[in-house]
Amino acid sequence: MILGRCLGSVARTLMCSILSWCVTAHSGAATAASISPDSEACIECHVTVTPGVVADWEKSRHARVSPQEAFQKPTLELRVSAEQVPERLAKTTVGCAECHTLDSEKHADHFEHQGYTIHLIVTPRDCSTCHPAEADQYSNNLMSHGYVNLVNNPLFQDLMESINGGRHFEEGRLTSSPSDALTQADSCLFCHGTRVEVKGKVMRETDMGPMEFPDLSGWPNQGVGRINPDGSQASCTSCHTRHQFAIEMARKPATCSECHKGPDVPASKVFEVSKHGNLYESMGGAWNFTTVPWTVGKDITGPTCATCHVSLLVNSEGTIIAPRTHQMNDRLPWRLFGLPYAHAHPKSPDTTVIKSASSLPLPTDLDGTPSSSFLIDAEEQSVRQRTLQGVCASCHATGWIQGHWDRFLHTIQTTNEMTLTTTRILFTAWDKGLARGPAQKESPFDESIEKKWVEQWLFYANSVRFSSAMCGADYGVFENGRWNLSKNTREMADWLEARMAREEKDKSTGKDKPPGKGKR
Amino acid sequence: MILGRCLGSVARTLMCSILSWCVTAHSGAATAASISPDSEACIECHVTVTPGVVADWEKSRHARVSPQEAFQKPTLELRVSAEQVPERLAKTTVGCAECHTLDSEKHADHFEHQGYTIHLIVTPRDCSTCHPAEADQYSNNLMSHGYVNLVNNPLFQDLMESINGGRHFEEGRLTSSPSDALTQADSCLFCHGTRVEVKGKVMRETDMGPMEFPDLSGWPNQGVGRINPDGSQASCTSCHTRHQFAIEMARKPATCSECHKGPDVPASKVFEVSKHGNLYESMGGAWNFTTVPWTVGKDITGPTCATCHVSLLVNSEGTIIAPRTHQMNDRLPWRLFGLPYAHAHPKSPDTTVIKSASSLPLPTDLDGTPSSSFLIDAEEQSVRQRTLQGVCASCHATGWIQGHWDRFLHTIQTTNEMTLTTTRILFTAWDKGLARGPAQKESPFDESIEKKWVEQWLFYANSVRFSSAMCGADYGVFENGRWNLSKNTREMADWLEARMAREEKDKSTGKDKPPGKGKR
Amino acid sequence: MILGRCLGSVARTLMCSILSWCVTAHSGAATAASISPDSEACIECHVTVTPGVVADWEKSRHARVSPQEAFQKPTLELRVSAEQVPERLAKTTVGCAECHTLDSEKHADHFEHQGYTIHLIVTPRDCSTCHPAEADQYSNNLMSHGYVNLVNNPLFQDLMESINGGRHFEEGRLTSSPSDALTQADSCLFCHGTRVEVKGKVMRETDMGPMEFPDLSGWPNQGVGRINPDGSQASCTSCHTRHQFAIEMARKPATCSECHKGPDVPASKVFEVSKHGNLYESMGGAWNFTTVPWTVGKDITGPTCATCHVSLLVNSEGTIIAPRTHQMNDRLPWRLFGLPYAHAHPKSPDTTVIKSASSLPLPTDLDGTPSSSFLIDAEEQSVRQRTLQGVCASCHATGWIQGHWDRFLHTIQTTNEMTLTTTRILFTAWDKGLARGPAQKESPFDESIEKKWVEQWLFYANSVRFSSAMCGADYGVFENGRWNLSKNTREMADWLEARMAREEKDKSTGKDKPPGKGKR
Fold first, then answer.
1. What CA–CA distance (Å, rounded) separates A151 from A135?
2. B386 touches chain A (CB under 8 A)
3. Cβ B397–A264 below 8 Å, yes or no?
4. Out of A297, A410, A418, whose CB is closest to C51?
5. Do B399 and A215 touch (CB under 8 A)?
6. Overall pTM > 0.95
7. Is the CB of residue A13 less than 8 Å away from at least one CB of chain C?
8. Is the Cβ of A1 closer than 8 Å to some Cβ of chain B?
């Protein structure tokens, strides 16, 4: 009997140990931090009203760890950059109330809700309570200025109009009408960010009966440069998806590809056909996307977007390979996205300040001249190049890196030349009155030949450069690249030649020129 | 000794428990149901002849559970909708013989095979033995009419011909020849479904020696609206892939993307760049795709196609968020796929009955007028909208949903307008004899300018609408969307202007018009 | 006490067994083989210098198994094809030194490095020490001749120039300049392979201070037909990615898609929308990609690229379904990639020997006539067809396979016809002097109309054929297929008609022809 009990006890103990090990391995470490009473009150209803939100949050780190606990991690393991937070926030987990009632009175979208003053849109200013370094770095990132840089640049506005404006065919003529806020929010501003404003209050039917909410314009939106009702700029949830805010998600390429897959910035498509993308796709299932810091070789055996551009990387001895940055261009000497030519990165994230030699709001003039005083200099480029190549060096020898870089710089040069060739064709068309551009006080983006020119730099030259930079050549030849660059150039030249020949003939036969455009 | 034996026993017991736990965890619950002798006879040969089929089936739920067991599940967990099946089918697993010998004599493709009368193609009528509600719902789904709606509509037939017909260049002229059954089956009908018919019998060499089989035309095919040799319509295996018929597969987006990735219905590409697609891609590895019902938040923290359009969803308390439906448009107020304009969903899944105002077999007339008497009314749209938005509400607040919906409805309107603009251009061309359309008793799809018009609605307007509906803006701007809508409109207007100018000049110089087309 | 100790011992033993089982399950079988002292010396520094490389290798099979152990596997499980290796290589794992110091003096890129003579680029000749059959088979694969077949074929060189050459617009004329080595390496040769040559020596800064390395041109590159500094041809690492060389990676489709995703060879995109691709995407997470041999049904329930084209496959009884081959066309009767028409596979992997009826270096003449004496005959096609269909038969009945094959052969024929139609249009243009081709000693690839012709066969006809072969119809209709074939044909015919009409008119009014081209 005694022996039996004893044996039973051994068995139970063992089984408990095993089960406990299994459970721990599955669910992550336990935590002592508890949810705040305010957040508990939120969840009481919202577990039924928006069950997906609550369940998602419950899987988050925010639901398990208090700021105080987060601060106590060894330096390299820190996921927070603040050193302390207000006492009332320190000891509970980071729940609904902690974020949605934080300084709500400073948010124009605040309202009374079941006895609480809350605001709808949690902003980078809110997040910076615990993550100030990240919010600050990101504010120096071009992306955080995605809205203002687009909307406050008259040339980009004109391009937007040429895409989003209405087109009508009436009495044999094509006419255009201005685009509207809903279309813009559904198009360019979906990724760039909208301006979210409070239009007033509105009553809405809910599962709990009618309730009053702020009525927002420009909402929903989670674009990178969103203007928020608290006056702040940018949206952390573009990449750190609500409400799990999982670091593994931000580190996976599908996050970046939400906005970087189209032919203008085809980073995702290039990654897919690169060796790096293949490693991720084929082997990434066994990688560890949650550890901080991220140990090259141990956690991952190939890079994702975040590896090269954002994350804190260390080697197996804990030596830092690259510090974390949310100003992605810290590691980028060149801006491949040509406007219209690839160029050294702008100094300021606010690119509306830039003026080219001919006073256009562009980082490079139409003839390719860089707007140098607004761009980082060669020395700064060199610093950023070294930082980026430090990541490459985790897995590549110096000769490999040098060979790759030489090829890449050469491609920047040759694709810029291919853009210049078509710009010269367009200049000739403008000069000869075969198309009407800025000199005629008209849009450089609305005529067919102008649209072909836009595709030359915005789609084809960009695509070739991304393919080169990220070693995904399959994309940059026939899919959307050198084949197209060359074909498009020839077609533009053919068009010019045919039009000039026609003009010549019309002149010799006394015909008038065809009517100008005055339309889109 | 005794102690030793005893201890050994404890150890063995423990190890067995652990192993058993591991095995169970790996392979799913054990079952008492056994395979029928008939199915065993099939497998005896086929484990060698088609090992992949047998092994795949062995991993299926069909191989583990008998109908009788399946019927005993609690209502919400039911995967069958019948209440009983014929006695002889009730107690064994659902094996080869259970489906392939079911009422075989009613299938024109039945034949004698190793002592059994079997039929090759298992049809929705067979599946409805256990799954009648699903078969019935699906018969009200447009997809189940994919073959008849395409093939019995003269206008769509004409479009098919313009794509699949042969083109020849002889004596300086482009001529066309009709498409053939093999080409159609390899093209449109691959997804829409073929008509599978028994041409006769044929002897074939097999591993078991020569055997006689039915000789089928239109085979192989697993298109959604396939006409089967038993006279039934549709194919369950389009989505429920043989022979594992795994619910996780039907719930994953790769299933839908087999037919919904091209530019005409780019749902898959839009999903890929949406936040939802990112959640699936980045976090879906940890989701549970096998549970019935599907618990939002617990099983999944983001939706797939099936979540929004098909599956039975509950919240963590077991309350139904949306009932299962295989008539997908139960949750769809609008048909985004414009023919040629987006419109309220057709009332009947048989769209060949529809006549537009000008008697075309189209849900919207060429000028955009909806063929309203054949389409659901605003009230029914409202019902379906509420059902769909109920799914959204699992994770989104009412303001978010309202804002999204306003934007989406606006995009339906503006893209329809962009289609109308190009239709007017084409009308003018037809009117002036610069192209030849229905009024001249010719195809509206075969000339270059007409093909540009088709791309306007079939590719670009559709793409923008799917991008809007599913929040994947990156696809709907530059990849295949507003940029193209606007560019294509301008190019069509330019073409018209140039042709009219040429006509004008030819007239003034006494030239004849160029010859009409009479060709593809 | 004794009992307690005894029980404790049982518990410890049990726990050890369990933990050991867990560890083994996680990390693969233990091995007795140890790393060589030379490789240890490499790692001593490189664990810091290139930590990713070392960590990746440590996860490899090469790091766990010695050649001697590898040779002892049962025949079907062998991953090596040599029967023995030099004694000094037999008993240690396959580490840095084993490959990078193997016959280094025969590699032009050898150099002195920390007391060792090593070479940078490990080549198929090195790999053939253990894998001679694979290296030999691959040398008979077209891919291994990717560089020479492209660069030594004057017609393909001309096509490359039309893509990669510079274009300039000066004094109103479009001119061209030759492409350069860096551009070619960044474009076509990225996948096809470069010629890697030693230019000299170079000093580079390293973490260990300045060091001398070979200075290579054409580097980095891992193209399939790379010319290596030891005179060998091809690169195993194109598919067997360094330094883990994981068989699961080579077996996954992302590996092939590095070079087979673009519109010229869109196998990856077709696979994505095929049932097979869906199976992989939806269910592949549970498949076993590491076992040798690969058991159909047990390890995988659907095929990847490697399944059909490369891998050793067995059924559950261990019977061989298909032997392993690295000469992929062993299972390919047809070459779908038309040059410019689909054709029976070339006999020799060196296609530079081929001459067409009109003496062009093409497997089919411009009028479609196959260069038959250089292509495999019908009997050999039949052998290869049976091998491939043997794989199909794992999961498909004979009637299915026959129906599929009939459809596929028909599509080869009809797409070849659609190519011929446009070739005839181009011939007419050349004949009438509306474009200038080979007869005028000019490129057939540089004019706009010629580029449309190239797209007809290189993009559209190829795409339709791949879609047919791999059952991914969604890709081959609207995405890049029959729609485009038909539209492009019509546009080419329209162009010809318009140009001829203009010529006719110019003639009648005494105008000269427009100037010839003499430009790209």
1. 22
2. no
3. no
4. A297
5. yes
6. no
7. yes
8. no
Cα angle B477, C260, B479; round to 5: 5
Q: Tell me the backbone φ, ψ of residue A259, rounded to 5 degrees.
A: -120, -5
Interface test with B, best of A208, A239, A258 (most B CBs within 10 A): A258
B 261-280 near A (Cβ less than 8 A): 272-275, 277-279
Where are the domain boundaries for CATH 1.20.850.10 in chain A? Answer: 263-333+376-396
Residue C315 contacts residue B48 (beta carbons within 8 Å): yes
Enter the tokens of residue C386. 């049976």
Name the stretches of chain B with pLDDT < 70: 1-32, 510-520
User: Could you tell me if B352 and B282 are in contact, meaning their C-beta atoms sit under 8 angstroms apart?
Assistant: no
In total, the C-beta contacts within 8 angstroms joining chain A to chain B are 195
Percent of chain C clearing pLDDT 70 (strictly above): 92
State the complex-level ipTM. 0.93
Query: Does any CB of chain A come closer than 8 Å to the CB of residue B318?
Result: no
CB pair distance less than 8 Å for C428 and B169: yes
Cis peptide before A243 (omega within 30 of 0): yes
- For residue B475, the 8-state DSSP code is I
Evaluate whether C159 touches C445 at the Cβ level (below 8 Å). Answer: yes
Q: How confident is the model at residue A439, as a pLDDT?
A: 87
CB contact under 8 A, B244 and C479: no
Structure tokens at B322: 């949306």
Q: Please tell me what DSSP assigns to residue B304.
A: -
pLDDT, residue A517, reads 45
**How many whole angstroms from its chain centre is CA C496?**
38
CA-based nearest residue to B239, from B226, B230, B96: B226
Is C471 near chain B, with CB under 8 Å?
yes
Query: CA–CA separation, A361 vs A152, rounded Å?
Result: 10
Give the C-alpha separation, C2 to B503, whole Å. 111
Residue B235: partners with Cβ closer than 8 Å, 6 or more residues away: B123, B124, B193, B221, B222, B223, B224, B225, B226, B228
Asked if A164 reaches chain B (Cβ–Cβ under 8 Å), the answer is yes
pLDDT at B506: 81
Q: If you search the block for the tokens 């989670």, which residue do you land on?
A: A222
Give, in order, the Cα–Cα distances in Å from A108 to each of A156, A231, A236, B3, B362.
29, 9, 19, 76, 49
On whether any CB of chain C is under 8 Å from the CB of B164, the answer is: yes
What is the distance between the alpha carbons of residues A436 and B516, in angstroms, rounded to a whole number? 34
Would you state the structure tokens that stand for residue C398, as one six-digit string? 């004979």
Cα separation of B436 and B414, whole Å?
28
Peptide bond into A113 cis (omega under 30): no
Nearest neighbour of C259 by CB, restricted to A277, A319, A474: A474
In chain A the first and final C-alpha atoms are separated, in Å, by 95
Kindly give the residue spans of alpha helices, DSSP state H, lying in A343-456. Answer: 378-392, 398-431, 448-455
A18 has a chain C CB within 8 A of its CB: yes
Chain B contact for C418 (CB, 8 A cutoff): yes
Taking an 8 Å cut-off on Cβ atoms, the answer to whether A205 and B316 are in contact is: no
Q: Do residues B451 and C490 touch, judged by C-beta distance below 8 A? A: yes
Report the C-alpha gap between C285 and C287 in whole angstroms.
6
> Across residues A127-154, what is the average pLDDT?
98
CATH fit for domain A263-333+376-396, picks 3.40.140.10, 1.20.850.10, 3.40.50.300, 1.10.3720.10: 1.20.850.10
- Over residues C201-205, the mean pLDDT reads 95
Residue A197 host element (H or E): strand A197-204
* 8 A C-beta contact, residue C282 and residue B252: yes
A261-271 CB burial, b ≥16 within 10 A, e <16: bbbbbbbbbbb
Gap from A364 CA to chain B (nearest CA, Å): 22
Question: Under the phi-then-psi rule, with left for phi > 0, alpha for psi from -120 to 50, and beta for the rest, what region is B414?
Answer: alpha
Nearest Cα to B414, choosing from B486, B349, B344?
B486
Tell me which chain A residues have a C-beta less than 8 angstroms from the C-beta of B400. 219-220
